[in-house]
Automatic annotation (TrEMBL):
This is Branched-chain-amino-acid transaminase. It comes from the Eukaryota. Residues 1-17 form the signal peptide. GO terms for biological process: branched-chain amino acid metabolic process. The modification N6-(pyridoxal phosphate)lysine is found at K233. The keyword Aminoacyl-tRNA synthetase does not apply.
Length: 396
């Protein structure tokens, strides 16, 4: 068994040495005419597409755009980019993604700046995390440069769908990589498909920064095992969360917080995002460090900003009992950005057993540190604050 894995890994490693094409080269278009050499096509203008709603009223849902990008892995190598206008894919019914969950995805955003340029936030980090998800599930890694070129290509082609500067929205990019080849015995596929779909979005939780969400502690299910797959962005993690997530929402709690599976005593993360607690008096930014938490790119960025703001960042085990010591709690991630959490309830058998942790003076208002961190990360993303750390990738 071990030998098989080693052989597969070495095959995969040789795939990552595949040389990527130059930007905009060799792009073909499915279902439409062949793509005219994109180098010569001037970049369009963000916010000029016709939507079925106003840019200011966007939520977080699927919306058709001009195109999606696809790359297929066959015979041991990744092919060329293909642009498609079809939201459907033709997949073999024996695909390993469908049966065995050999699938992972990413989430990142493109922002329009005041001068009309468009910038993607930290795509390098998503390229790396996608690779770690692939390695964990024995899928071939997509070479880093190819990922970045694909991001550039798909945003370029859908630039009209990037919400205009000032609307508060962003173009959400959802890269997805899965085993599309058929296998019926339990083993990795020999064919894979990589897709990037894009859509204009705004707030994930209704009201965004202005309305703190009520959270619930999920005590009857675990999200991820200590040596499982919680630290990579694989599809199965989200399947495991569907039931607890829907139950939480039905009970009136839009966001659910998981504890560690082994001891149920440490805070792990929310279904959609990382957990951050603020101790205002001691100026501390506290976030769980665990092998079963997804390493959030937003959290990593906020930690840097928090240090810049003079906060002490503590990434460590965070005990459930510590909840009552936080003055502010936030959920952070690409989709949720920085979402204030007003309260977290631990339901008991009876009302007397139920504990509700509340944060800040009022559960209706966002705390000052949450607001400051939100404002700063947003200002960088929208080009209003200098990008000192080189986090933005400009679409060209
Ligand atoms: N945790 C989970 C479970 C997530 O799904 C996400 C979203 O991607 C995050 C955390 C936040 O990660 P990031 O900031 O990289 O989007
Ligand atoms: C993201 O933030 O990009 C995610 O993938 C989270 C998802 C639950 C919407």
């Amino acid at each position: 068994m071990r030998l098989t894995s080693a052989l597969l890994f070495s095959a995969i490693a040789s795939v990552s040495a595949f040389t990527a094409p130059t930007p905009h080269a060799q792009v073909s278009r499915l279902n439409t005419q062949l793509h005219v050499a994109a180098e010569t096509k001037p970049l369009g203008k963000p916010g000029t597409a016709k939507l079925d709603t106003d840019w200011k009223d966007l939520g977080f849902e699927f919306r058709p755009t001009k195109s999606n990008l696809r790359i297929t892995y066959k015979n041991g190598e990744w092919g060329e980019f293909e642009m498609s206008e079809d939201p459907y894919i033709n997949v073999h019914m024996g695909a390993t993604a469908l049966h065995y969950g050999q699938a992972c995805f990413e989430g990142l955003k493109a922002f329009a700046h005041e001068d009309g340029s468009v910038h993607v936030f930290r795509p390098d980090e998503n390229a790396k995390r996608l690779q770690s998800s692939c390695e964990r599930t024995l899928m071939p890694v997509l070479p880093h440069d190819k990922f970045i070129e694909a991001i550039n290509e798909v945003v370029r082609d859908n630039i009209e769908y990037v919400p205009p500067y000032g609307s508060g929205g962003a173009l959400y990019l959802r890269p997805l990589l899965f085993g599309s080849g058929a296998r019926i015995g339990l083993q990795p596929a020999d064919e894979y498909t990589f897709i990037i779909m894009v859509m204009p979005v705004a707030d994930y939780y209704k009201g965004g920064l202005s309305s703190p969400v009520d959270g619930i502690l999920i005590t009857d299910f675990d999200r991820a095992a200590p040596r499982g797959v919680g630290n990579v962005k694989v599809a199965g993690n989200y399947a495991a969360d569907m039931l607890p997530n829907m139950r939480s929402k039905k009970a009136g709690f839009p966001i659910g917080l998981y504890l560690d599976a082994a001891t149920q005593s440490n805070i792990e993360e929310f279904s959609t995002s990382n957990f951050v607690g603020i101790d205002s008096e001691n100026k501390k930014y506290v976030t769980p460090k665990s092998s079963s938490v997804l390493p959030s790119i937003t959290n990593k960025s906020l930690m840097k900003i928090a240090e810049d703001e003079g906060l002490t960042v503590e990434a460590r085990d965070v005990l459930l009992e510590e909840l009552e010591t936080f003055d502010e709690v936030m959920a952070c991630g690409t989709a949720v950005v920085v979402t204030p959490v007003g309260s977290i309830t631990k339901l008991g058998e009876t009302d007397e057993d139920t504990v509700k942790y509340t944060f800040g003076e009022s559960q209706e208002e966002v705390g000052p540190i949450t607001r400051r961190l939100y404002d700063r990360v947003r200002a960088i993303q929208y080009g209003e604050e200098e990008d000192k750390n080189g986090w933005l990738y400009k679409i060209n």
